[in-house]
């Protein structure tokens, strides 16, 4: 059903519902830094805001996501491929992929992302979180009520507006169900929409911030955000287009956060706290520690893996399409290339982007978000 036919009242009802949610985050793992007094958390005034009051315009991300309606109405072949790809990935998943996807479902997104930090640094980071030693990072990025999220929560409104049934509902006999013993992760998902993927959106949103704080590991962190999306396909609860839509939404949102001077100040404070606490925990230079650590994957592997996850084998649906990378996206690379101008950072994003015209990409002012390959941009050498 086209979003243009929805009653405006739906958004108001869902807004009220989302404001009433009180969700909590999951647990974290451990490895021990030197105990010292925990740093101060954000003041209440800092935790309250600032949110750009008019962002996103109209209160939803439908304008950057509604390429999905075009595909449903005009390209049934792409919708068919969308389902076939889920079935293939779900049915062929290795035990390791299944286990990772299940863990991703239940873990906080920041815990899932921390795998990208390396064999030794990842546990140190999780220990800092568990011990409350990086409260500014936690306030911005832990759980469904994290301050870097939308004021109204995750993708609840967008999911209801697009109303796309999940793969295991559409093809129940073709999707393998993977669960932890005694739990059923599918039980609560059958009645809500699949597009866009909330796990993916949160993965890329918090991954964008974590990469901003630790640019030395930017490609690995962004690739891990992509794996969070892939895990949703492995479970058969999301389609590739859901994952691609989640990335579009998150890239727009983290760009907005970093482009807002007040919110960027909070991000910068959290980054300084994180790096200071990590260096205290490892007993020296963080850059040297990262260089000596066993990486989650090489930079080259991270870039190649993330590029594959950007389009999931779809061909271009609009080969003649043209658009530009949105100007606000330049803020994504401010910590990676601090000596460059926004125009130069934008040029890097343009140079490392995929071509226009893939499914969900758009022309005009709402287009270009799908094209941004942040893993490749972090790996770029001017």
Automatic annotation (TrEMBL):
InterPro entries linked: Acid_Pase_classA_bac, Acid_Pase_classA_bac_CS, PAP2/HPO, PAP2/HPO_sf
Domain of life: Bacteria
SMART domains: acidPPc
Keyword Ubl conjugation: no
Annotated GO CC locations: outer membrane-bounded periplasmic space
EC number: 3.1.3.2
Predominant location category: periplasm
Signal peptide: 1-30
Occurrences of domain Phosphatidic acid phosphatase type 2/haloperoxidase (ranges): 141-258
Keyword terms: Hydrolase, Periplasm, Signal
Regions annotated as coiled coil: none
Keyword Membrane recorded: no
Catalyzed chemical reaction(s): a phosphate monoester + H2O = an alcohol + phosphate
Localization in the cell: Periplasm
UniProt GO MF annotations: acid phosphatase activity
Family: Belongs to the class A bacterial acid phosphatase family.
Name under which the protein is recorded: acid phosphatase
């Amino acid at each position: 059903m086209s979003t243009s036919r929805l009653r405006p009242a739906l958004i108001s009802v869902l807004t009220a519902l989302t404001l009433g949610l009180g969700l909590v985050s999951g647990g974290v793992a451990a490895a021990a830094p030197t105990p010292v007094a925990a740093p101060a958390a954000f003041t209440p005034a800092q935790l309250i805001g600032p949110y750009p009051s008019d962002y996103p315009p109209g209160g939803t991300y439908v304008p950057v996501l509604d390429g999905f309606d075009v595909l449903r109405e005009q390209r049934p072949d792409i919708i068919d491929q969308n389902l076939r790809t889920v079935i293939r990935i779900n049915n062929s998943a290795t035990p390791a992929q299944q286990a990772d996807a299940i863990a991703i479902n239940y873990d906080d997104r920041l815990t899932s992302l921390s795998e990208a930090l390396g064999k030794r640094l990842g546990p140190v980071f999780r220990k800092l979180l568990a011990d409350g030693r990086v409260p500014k990072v936690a306030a911005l990025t832990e759980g469904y009520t994290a301050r870097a999220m939308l004021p109204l929560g995750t993708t609840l409104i967008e999911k209801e507006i697009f109303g796309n049934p999940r793969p295991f509902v559409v093809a129940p006999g073709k999707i393998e169900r993977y669960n932890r013993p005694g739990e059923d992760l599918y039980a609560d998902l059958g009645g809500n929409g699949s597009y866009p993927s909330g796990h993916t959106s949160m993965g890329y949103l918090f991954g964008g911030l974590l990469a901003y704080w630790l640019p030395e590991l930017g490609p690995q962190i962004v690739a891990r955000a992509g794996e969070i999306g892939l895990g949703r396909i492995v479970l058969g609860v999301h389609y590739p287009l859901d994952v691609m839509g989640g990335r579009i939404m998150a890239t727009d949102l983290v760009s907005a956060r970093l482009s807002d001077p007040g919110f960027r100040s909070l991000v910068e404070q959290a980054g300084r706290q994180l790096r200071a606490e990590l260096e205290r925990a490892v007993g020296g230079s963080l850059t040297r520690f990262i260089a000596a650590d066993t990486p989650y994957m090489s930079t080259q592997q991270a870039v190649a893996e993330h590029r594959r996850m950007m389009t999931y084998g779809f061909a271009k649906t609009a080969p003649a399409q043209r658009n530009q990378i949105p100007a606000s996206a330049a803020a994504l690379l401010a910590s990676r290339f601090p000596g460059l101008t926004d125009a130069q950072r934008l040029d890097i994003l343009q140079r490392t982007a995929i071509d226009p015209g893939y499914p969900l990409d758009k022309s005009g002012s709402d287009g270009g978000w799908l094209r941004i390959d942040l893993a490749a941009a972090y790996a770029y050498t001017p």
